Amino acid sequence: MAHSHSKNKSVIKPVLYAFLSFALAFMLFLLSICLVARITLFSQDFMLTAMAECDYYSMIKDELRTQLKNLGHASGLNDDFVDTYVESLDIRQIETEYISAFYSGESTLVETNEFKQTFKAAIDQYVEDNNIDKSKANENNIIFLVDEAAGIYVNCISIPFFSVIANYFYKLSTPLNIAAVALFVFSLAVAAIIFFTNEFRHRRYRYLCYACTASFISITVIPLVVFISKYIEKINLGTRSLYNLFVTYFTSLFKDFWVFSGVFLFLSILTFVLYYRAYNKAVNG
Amino acid sequence: MRKHQSSHRSANGKNFIILPIIFSVLILGISCAVVLPSASTFITLSQMFFSDDNKDFSTDYTNIFVPVADEPEESSTVEEQPAPEPKTVPISSITYPKSGEQFGELIIEDCQIDDKLFFGDGNIELNNGVGLYTGSFIPGYGKTILIAGHNNTYFNGLKYAEIGQKVKIRTSYGNYTYEITDIQVKYYNDESAYDLTAETENLIMYTCYPFDELGLTPKRCFVYGKLVSGPQIDKNS
After folding, report:
1. B21 — contact with chain A (CB < 8 Å)?
2. Are the C-beta atoms of B214 and A135 separated by less than 8 Å?
3. Does one domain contain both A218 and A192?
4. What stretch of H or E contains A274?
5. Dist CA B126 CA B206 (whole Å)
6. Is A136 an 8 Å CB contact of chain B?
7. What is the pLDDT of chain A when averaged over all its residues?
8. pLDDT by residue for chain B (237 residues), tens digit each?
9. What is the pLDDT of residues A151-210, one digit of tens each?
10. Are A74 and A141 in the same domain?
11. ipTM of model
């Protein structure tokens, strides 16, 4: 009877610790996802770095220049006028303000008043410099042209769907932080239970090693699948600048998963070495 | 004792591989099971943004226009002979242009217009020549041909258009001549300016009006033409 009770206990204990180990692995996996999201998706700096890395600002400038030239061809403005005007715009500053507004929960509508004013002033100067007959520069037609140009400017500066998701995105930020802190605390608690309730040191390290290795595998699989499938590069976006930004942004995002993979791999090897040493010590001792 | 110890270590060694893999499968499986039902709509929607082809951002265009020689004009001295049957081109022999392709030339000598003719009237087309609206028809089809161009560039010469002037359209399957029959100025949203359901071949060229005006104008100059000569497309062959 006593032998049977002892046998049951010896079966339940490893199962219980294996379950705790699994729970720890799951929480570490979720914590990694939250942290990756925190330092990438929810980080303004990450977006601005991606923009700088893929030369987004100069591509936007080129696209704005090309589209305004197309408009110019339909409305009698020459290419030099557009070149000079677009060169005077500080696209980096404008984009940074737009991105800041998105991450701080403010309006993501691109402000066009300044653009309209400067563009209209540039056209007036163009009319004057080129001695264009006033009868050939109807005010209504020019205002229509300025409005169309402002529409092009908004399209170039803004990022699709940003205005739609901005509010949700901002509101998600706090719950994400709370979730990350909660997962961290729970992970520590489970790790502490595994560590302090096992009487043998090698067993403590063994279950921690299982958790770290499982987290390593789970976290590694995600970027591995994404990069092998080359799914990111198959995105179909309207402009080269958006395409390059998307590819750079998400490539960097999934590369950040490697960092967490590396951390878990290190912890996995460390706990395995500690287990091995503790086990040998226990056997030899 | 030593044998027991060795087998115990071996089992533990396998556990270091098998258990984490089982855990990972469970973690990813549970995550997918939780996330997929609620995210399936977004995942399905996101499929629309992906394609197997690489996106082409090039602003170059394809030229499928291969000029063909003009038909020799009938001698006007042989008046007794009956008028020849109009030539036809089987539709199967025509490479129907794709959007953005140059498939011909449009020439109005009296207006000093000699432009590339594109299929489509987007930016690439209108920056390089004049464009046929894809909702209209190619020359020879027996329906409306609607061609657009910028008034400051390729269709600037339309300001010299007059009734009776000849318009030549050269394509890879035949050369066409039209005669200008009417010139009208209408608003851009005036649908009476064109009839895309017409069953007779008619040419409509349009551009912004007034010419050489600065800014975007709501008026358009429509130049109408009727077919004089050119092979008809046989839609049944």
Report:
1. yes
2. no
3. yes
4. helix A240-284
5. 12
6. yes
7. 90
8. 444 454 455 556 778 889 999 999 999 999 999 988 888 887 787 777 787 776 777 778 899 999 988 766 554 444 555 555 568 899 998 999 999 999 999 999 999 999 999 999 999 999 999 999 999 999 999 999 999 999 989 999 999 999 999 999 999 999 999 999 999 999 999 999 999 999 999 999 999 999 988 888 899 999 999 999 999 998 887
9. 999 999 999 888 778 778 888 889 999 999 999 999 999 999 999 998 888 889 999 999
10. yes
11. 0.82
- Contact call for B55 and A18, based on CB within 8 A: no
Residue B107 one-letter amino acid: I
CATH superfamily of B88-234: Sortase (2.40.260.10)
- The separation between CA A226 and the C-alpha centre of its own chain, rounded to angstroms, equals 15
Distance CA(A271)–CA(A277), nearest Å, equals: 10
With respect to residue A167, please indicate whether it lies within any of the assigned structural domains. Answer: no
Indicate the residue among A128, A162, A196 that finishes a domain.
A162
Q: Could you say which of A101, A128, A162 is where a domain stops?
A: A162
Residue A154 sits in which domain range? 56-162
For residue B54, the chain A residues in CB contact (below 8 A) are 233
What is the b/e burial string over A188-222, where b = at least 16 CB atoms within 10 angstroms of the residue's CB? eebbebbeeebeebbbbbbbbbbbbbbbbbbbbbb
Q: A175 Cβ partners below 8 Å, 6+ apart?
A: none
Q: Count helices and strands (H / E) in chain B.
A: 2, 10
Q: Which of residues 31-70 of A touch B (CB under 8 A)?
A: 66-67, 70
The answer to whether residue B79 neighbours chain A at the CB level (below 8 Å) is no
Tally of domains within chain A? 2
Q: Decide: helix, strand or coil at residue B85.
A: coil
Q: Are residues A277 and A182 part of one domain?
A: yes
- Same domain for A141 and A78: yes
**Same-domain pairing of A181 and A203:** yes
Nearest to B174 by CA among B69, B62, B63, B64: B69
Active site residue B150: yes
Would you call A116 exposed, middle or buried from its count of C-beta atoms within 10 A (0-12, 13-18, 19+)?
Answer: middle
DSSP category for residue B110: G
